Amino acid sequence: MSLTTSMFVHGFTPGIIHYGRGCISDIGQTLAENGLENAMIVCGQNIGANERLMTPVKEGLGDQLVGVFNETTPVKSIETVFDGIDRANNLNADVLVAVGGGSSLDIATGISLLAKDNRSLKDVQAEVQETGTITLPEDSDQLLPMVPVPTTLAGADLSVAAGIIVPTNEGKTEVIVAHEDLMPTAFFYDPDLFDTTPMDVLAGSAINGFDKGIEAIYSRFANPMTDATAIRGLKYLRSSLPGLRETEDPAVIERAVLGIILVQYGVSVPGAYKINIVHAFGHALRNQFGIQQGVAHAVIVPHALRLIFEEGGGRPEVLAEGLVTDPEPENAEGAVVEAVTCIRDGLGLPKHLRDIDGVSREELRDAAKLTYEDDFLSMGPPNFNPSVDDIEEALQSAW
Q1: Has residue 215 got a pLDDT over 70?
Q2: 81: exposed, middle or buried (C-beta count within 10 Å: 0-12, 13-18, 19+)?
Q3: Which of 27-31, 268-272, 339-343 is predicted least confidently?
Q4: For the purposes of burial, counting CB atoms within 10 Å of the CB of 187, is it exposed (0-12), middle (13-18) or buried (19 or more)?
Q5: For residue 149, which of 197, 110, 195, 101 has the smallest C-alpha distance?
Q6: Spatial separation of the C-alpha atoms in residues 41 and 72, rounded to whole Å
Q7: What is the 3-state secondary structure (H, E, C) of the chain?
Q8: Do residues 233 and 263 make contact, with C-beta atoms less than 8 angstroms apart?
Q9: Are 172 and 84 in contact (CB under 8 A)?
Q10: What gap in Å lies between CA 304 and CA 71, rounded to an integer?
Q11: Each residue of 17-73: pLDDT tens digit?
């Protein structure tokens, strides 16, 4: 493999990352070191009712915990954001501790963005109607600090972006808000907390996070810095995800969590996102058929890779470094697809679109059009420019 590379610029400044079993006990000290005193937990009802998970989080926060807002849902609605703002203001919260998966993290980001602002729900709706986005306050000090405590493997946490659903005259619109000022203050990746997540949820989220490592490598914004963490992260995931359901070895989930941290490191930079093609397919399948993104990713990823490789992109030899035991396989493209398929199958996820309730073969053309129109599609390899027909063919092969 050639080590030559072109000029690049890499800018990524994450919050402090805490990793390891029991590290959640340090969360109160970390908040205190940052001058934060009143923490409100943001989570969903199932997470809030999970005492095995919540007890160590609450104990770690101690007297700094002022309340829990447990009303997040996968819908990620702007109304929930404003409910959370009311709760945070009533509690005089000065930091949000987002516990759970991507939905809670996105809602917490929305609360962080608007909690100290004077915009009403109607103001935000009008802004989205006019501009398609939600602007940040002019003063970054108006943002409420946030500390994610992830419990799934979706890799949505080490991020400066969030998706919020806002009703407009055209219907419900997912608004992607992204800015480097939205980077959380700190992160707590405690494998003990991941152990409390139901396996079906963990496996479904894992393929989503895993795909971030794949996409980071063939993104048009890839560089040697993101290659290094993505390749290392894929090695950890290759050695852990296939056995996630079958083993009680604590090292397996530990490697999976560490792999997810690494593959998303540097992925979420405004204007240069590393997630791209598989996520474009996932968005389209979710929006067309209402299926969960992790399930969509599981089915489509081998077929998306074949489509990318056919176009002459994808950097299969670099992907092989992280995914294939033989560092220089004779057929890197085939070896990568086989490795990804084995990981997907090891997680016990669906293999075909026809196996998923609500998916209609007659509507795959519509899903192809949605994929083609997705902004993330353009962030793949520089020469990757598939037609709607090409995308539909990939979806048909996944049927």
Answers
A1: yes
A2: buried
A3: 268-272
A4: buried
A5: 101
A6: 11
A7: CCCCCCCCCCCCCCCEEEECCCHHHHHHHHHHHCCCCCEEEEEEHHHHCCHHHHHHHHHHHHHHEEEEEEEECCCCEHHHHHHHHHHHHHHCCCEEEEEECHHHHHHHHHHHHHCCCCCCHHHHHHHHHHHCCCCCCCCHHHCCCEEEEECCCCCCCCCCEEEEEEEECCEEEEEEEECHHHCCCEEEECHHHHCCCCHHHHHHHHHHHHHHHHHHHHCCCCCHHHHHHHHHHHHHHHCCHHHCCCCCCHHHHHHHHHHHHHHHCCCCCCCCCCCCHHHHHHHHHHHHHCCCHHHHHHHHHHHHHHHHHHCCCCCHHHHHHHHCCCCCCCCHHHHHHHHHHHHHHHCCCCCCHHHCCCCCHHHHHHHHHHHHHCHHHHHCCCCCCCCHHHHHHHHHHHC
A8: yes
A9: no
A10: 35
A11: 999 999 999 999 999 999 999 999 999 999 999 999 999 999 999 999 999 999 999
Q: Which two tokens stand for residue 349?
A: 């996820």
pLDDT (tens digit per residue) in 293-311: 889 999 999 999 999 999 8
Domains identified in the chain and CATH numbers: 16-192 (3.40.50.1970), 199-398 (1.20.1090.10)
Cβ atoms within 10 Å, residue 112:
26
46's tokens: 């199932």
Torsion angle in degrees (nearest 10) through CA of 125, 130, 133, 135? -90
Check residue 4 and give its pLDDT. Answer: 65
Using pLDDT thresholds of 50, 70 and 90, give the confidence band for residue 2: low
pLDDT tens-place string over residues 251-263: 999 999 999 999 9
**In which band, very low, low, confident or very high, does the pLDDT at 313 lie, cut at 50, 70 and 90?**
confident
